[in-house]
Amino acid sequence: MAKTRWLDEQEMAAWIAFLEVSHRVFRSVEAQLKEDEGLSHAQYEILVKLSAAGEAGLRMTVLADSLITPKSGLTYQVGRLEQSGLVTRTACDSDVRGVTARITPRGLDVLRAAAPGHVARVREVLIDLMDRPQLLALADALGTVNGRLREGTGGTA
Amino acid sequence: MAKTRWLDEQEMAAWIAFLEVSHRVFRSVEAQLKEDEGLSHAQYEILVKLSAAGEAGLRMTVLADSLITPKSGLTYQVGRLEQSGLVTRTACDSDVRGVTARITPRGLDVLRAAAPGHVARVREVLIDLMDRPQLLALADALGTVNGRLREGTGGTA
DNA sequence: GTGTCATCGTTCAAATTCGAACCACGTGTC
DNA sequence: GACACGTGGTTCGAATTTGAACGATGACAC
Question: Which residues cross the membrane (chains A, B) (predicted)?
C-alpha cells in the first residue's frame, strides 16, 4: 500500500461536518417519523419510491438498488408494510422469480399524511439552515459525488 | 399547522443527493472497516474520540454527545471494546456515578493500524470525488448547518 | 434438451440499535 | 440532615439490520 495521504485541515473539516450532520439529521428525521406517524425512515423511503413508480410498481432488486440498502433488509421492511396493508407484493409477469411491489391506496394516504411533517423536519434540520448559495453548492458537490459513485458501482471495493 | 412549504427543485436536489451519498458512503465505510479490521464504524469513532482525549479519557455522557448517539448504544459498544481490551472503564473521581472511558495501548495500536485503510476509503467515496472548491463549499455549508444544529440542541423536537 | 452459471428474492442466525424503565448518586433547599 | 429533583449509566425487551446460505428460475452455449 502506498504511503497514506492523510486528510488535510480542509478535508478533515468537510468529513467531520458530513459525519456530524448526517448523524444529527437522520436521528432527528427518524424520530419525527416514528413519533408522529409510526413509520421508520426506511419505510417512508420505500413508500416514496413506490409512489413515484405508480401502477407499474417496482421489482425488489430495483427498489433495493435505488434505496441503496441490502436486499434482505428490504424484504423485511416490505413484508412489514405489506402486513400493514400499505404495500402489495405480486409475482412478476416476465420473470417468475421476480416480485413486484406496489403501493396501495391506503399506502398513498399514509404517505400523503406523513409528508408535510417529514418535509418540515427536513427543513428544520438541514435545508433551512443554509442560505441559497450554500444550498446550491451542497447540491452541486454531493451531486458530483453521487454521480461518480454511481458510475463506479461496486468499483469501490 | 401552516400550509406545507414543499421543497423546490434545488432543495429537493440537495436533499436527495445528501440522502444517497450518505447511504453509499456509510455503507462503504462500514464494509471496509468490518472486512479489513473487524471494527464497526461506531467502534472506530469511539476509538478516535478516546484517542484524542488522551490520558484523561472521556465521560460516557460526553462521549455519547460528541458521537451523537444514544447512551444505551454507547454502553453496548464500549462494553464490546472493553472485552476486546481496546478500552477501559473506570469510576470517575469527581462523581461516583460517572464512568470514564480510556483507550488502551492496544486500542491505540488497533486504531493506528485501521486508520490508513479507513482514510483511503473515505477518500475513495467522498473526498477525492470533489474538486477543491466543491470541498470547501461542502465544508462551509455543512459547517454552518452543524453550528446551527448545535445551538438548538434538542430545539428541533 | 442438457449442463453451467448468474440472478431473484427469501430465510436464517447473530449482532446491533433504540427508547423507556431503572437504580444510585449529586444538588439545592429548608 | 431530610427532602425533592435532576443526572449518569446501565439494563431491558423488542425491533431492526446485516451478510451468507439457500432454493428456484432464467439465460446461454453446445
Answer: none
Q: Does the beta-carbon distance from A130 to B123 stay under 8 Å?
A: no
Does A155 fall in a domain?
no
Provide the CATH number for the domain around residue B36: 1.10.10.10
- Residue A34 structural domain: 21-141
What is the number of structural domains in chain B?
1
CA angle B24, B6, A26 (to 5 degrees): 35
Residue B6 is assigned to a structural domain of this protein: no
In a domain, A9, yes or no: no
User: What CA–CA distance (Å, rounded) separates B116 from A151?
Assistant: 25
Cβ B98 to strand D below 7 Å: yes
Residue whose grid cell is 447540491: A139
- Identify whether B152 is part of a domain: no
Strand D closer than 7 A to residue B75 Cβ: yes
With CA atoms as reference, the chain B residue closest to A32 would be B157
Distance, in Å, from the CA atom of A60 to the CA atom of A73, rounded to the nearest integer, reads 11
